[in-house]
Amino acid sequence: MHIRTITRALAVSGLLLGATALTAPAMAQDAKTITGGFDVGPGGFPKNFNPLAATGGFTWLNTYLEPLVIFNAELSAIEGALAADYTVSPDQLTYTFNLVEETWHDGEAFTSADVKFTIELAQNAAAGSVFAGRLGAIESVEAPDDRTVVLNLSQADGGLLSILAQVMILPEHELGSVAPESLATSTWWSTSPIGTGPFKFTRYVTDQYVELAADTDYRNGTPKVERLINRYFENPAAAVAALRAGEIQFTYVEPEDAKTFEGNDAFRVIEGDSFVVNYVGFNQRVDLWKDVRVRQAFMYAIDRNAIIESLYGGAAKVANCGYVAPHLVPDGLNDYAYDPEKAKALLEEAGWAEINGDQPITWLTYYNAPQAANVMAAVQAMLAQVGINVVPRVVDVPTYNGIVYKEGTPDWNEFPLVYAGLQNGPNPAGINVGLNKSQLPPAGANIMRIEFDDLSAAFDAALGETDPSQVDARWQDVCRVMNEELPWATMWVANRYGVASSDLVDFVWTPAPAGGPYAAHPENWDIQ
């Protein structure tokens, strides 16, 4: 305990010295400003400005860009954003959206043409869109007038609204003349993007911060503060140091750090379900994982309950499939209780000594926080006890995405195994993109190249179910197949934490998967 305390003290003192060297935004000195580390930790996506390529960071993107629909702050329902309201046909094949009246930040009118343009662009993999495979059910987009958009589907898709909540609407008059394949590398995203949100993009100081200014013409009212600033930090500890020093008013924090703010009236600790399942992913293009007994051995070798108690402080739930919500988990699942002897027996049956033996296996992750390092070290030690030698490799998010989404024939040995997380709620369809064989890259996010027929059929049946009384049963089928076939070694669903200065007024942050988006209403945020 004393060693950890000393180590942290040294780290914080060094980080504080580093923080003082950062160039502070000049405008923050004379304008009402909220500064935060909005892209720190899970849910953030540092230095990504292209919402079509985003796999996180929507908490920040949604301050100046907006989707058609959005989750409420409780993540319990979807409501209108740029759509004032919407209707869905009984067969769930036609979605009609009535749009709000709004202008882009350059004064041009927002219309249905922008929505049509954005959705069709998001469906185009050539644009670098991560939504291409997820929006495949949309057969056509109609814009019968300036305020109406109609989506026609080829088949019902129970996850469509949840996906549309992450598709930020873009200006056709700015991007319509740009070749889709040029958008991914365009500097427009980080120099002069325009949106319809409550704040306008003003500048990006490379690797330091992004600054936004209030849009005084925003339809829901002029924002209470004049500036929003998103500071960039290498890790959560650096952001926590800046928070304590009063340099920022909000950041994501690790559970261990959250405890240190409890009882301190100068701060408010925000805790909530992450709606993200953490998993060890088996790359199915690698022969190591073809035998289900090897995948089962992984599950039996890892003492998930011990890790949750010792490293998460009990603030996580064991996942025996992609879900932990009771209405999505059927009875009779294998709980894969910790049993290293059973793991060894399964590996022997599968011929692990001949398949791999003690050869090191790269274990890739983008999680760079101390807690994740401790978790991976614990898992590494447990696997070693049964004869599986994994070697963690930590990279940043852009590098990770570049490796796992690489087109053509990647070097599969770069990522035979990953430690990652994927949205498993509030809409259960969230994990379809990572497991369905229809979602292989580049169209989708099935980065482990899983092509299990029974699993894909279960997902397709759940997504296509139009009887509300049968939806939960369909997702329970998905859970059951995951538990039996183990496309992933599912670990847990953990809580997440943010800490906000008590000086903030009406500030809303939700530990949403991918950072949301959700209806945070940043136009109402204020600071004393």
From TrEMBL:
<dbReference type="InterPro" id="IPR039424">
    <property type="entry name" value="SBP_5"/>
</dbReference>
<dbReference type="InterPro" id="IPR000914">
    <property type="entry name" value="SBP_5_dom"/>
</dbReference>
<dbReference type="Pfam" id="PF00496">
    <property type="entry name" value="SBP_bac_5"/>
</dbReference>
<comment type="similarity">
    <text>Belongs to the bacterial solute-binding protein 5 family.</text>
</comment>
<dbReference type="InterPro" id="IPR030678">
    <property type="entry name" value="Peptide/Ni-bd"/>
</dbReference>
<feature type="signal peptide">
    <location>
        <begin position="1"/>
        <end position="28"/>
    </location>
</feature>
<keyword id="KW-0813">Transport</keyword>
<feature type="domain" description="Solute-binding protein family 5">
    <location>
        <begin position="78"/>
        <end position="421"/>
    </location>
</feature>
<protein>
    <submittedName>
        <fullName>ABC transporter substrate-binding protein</fullName>
    </submittedName>
</protein>
<keyword id="KW-0732">Signal</keyword>
